[in-house]
């Protein structure tokens, strides 16, 4: 039993060798050997020199030790040579990056009632209601009211293609919906918001899925992009949930949404697989148009052209999600949504200018 334990402990050290320094690995081996001596007393139970040598060599292979052309050769206590597998330099560098990198997101939820390992309970957290929402920005009054319309000037052919695609989509949709001719009342505005938000939730989920699968297939870190893209997808979905409280689409409208979402899903998935830079720039320009749309909606309300919206209180789901006051009105909701869209605009334009393996500059909830 003790001999088996020694092999397990030392083998575990070999498996962990790619994630710790050589000095730490030596200390682990010494502790394991000392523990065995204390437990066995005068019994002749010792770790095999071959096992210890294999652990040490496996660790130095990743930490930059020198290798011969035919791999590492080890001798056991009887003088027999054993050849070990040699990792490629690329695999060793990838292992170093994974071992030295920080976690993409905290492993445990901050709002957990008890820590899963220690069982420690925080009373303030116990009193909070459970929330299934991912971290997202909460806008103060100043931030929500000072959102401005901006435009990123295309710098290369990829940017110009993305901008042309968004401009064409907007022209077609505005013409088909009557928005281009000003034929929009409260019902028309809700139809527009519902339709656009069913499509707007696609890019974040597609981007997160593609990067997640790339991370698995390439066996490398994501560098924090996935959580930001998932937050964006959920945020757009909450825009839709808010609008659905005010407007219940019929079967024809739902069929149109189903068709549009399928076409856009195929288009954006192919775009992200072929050129993530184009895809993020496309979303950046799409969010520029969203900011214009919600700014126009708020201006129409302020001019008194949408009286049903003016005196309508904020839906409960919106008050909870954006942490609005009990007296919040629907206008406050549109302001929060517009601020979200401006945030997505900046995030995607930033991602479009970054390399695939650059660390995400946006922390969770930013």
List the SSEs and their pairings.
Elements (H helix, E strand, L loop, with lengths): L1 H15 L5 H19 L8 H15 L9 E3 L5 E3 L5 H12 L22 H5 L13 H5 L11 H21 L8 H15 L1 H17 L6 H22 L4 H24 L1 H27 L4 H4 L5 H7 L7 H23 L14
Antiparallel strand pairs: 1-2
Helix pairs in contact: 1-2, 1-3, 2-3, 7-12, 8-10, 9-10, 9-11, 11-12, 12-15
What does this structure look like?
This protein is mostly helical and 366 residues long. It has two domains: 2-100, no CATH class; 139-352, Alternative oxidase (Ferritin, Up-down Bundle). It is built from 15 helices and two strands. It has helices spanning 2-16, 22-40, 49-63, 89-100, 123-127, 141-145, 157-177, 186-200, 202-218, 225-246, 251-274, 276-302, 307-310, 316-322, 330-352, and strands at 73-75, 81-83. Strand 1 (73-75) and strand 2 (81-83) form a beta hairpin. It is globular, with a radius of gyration of 29 Å. It starts with a helix and ends in a 14-residue tail after the last helix.
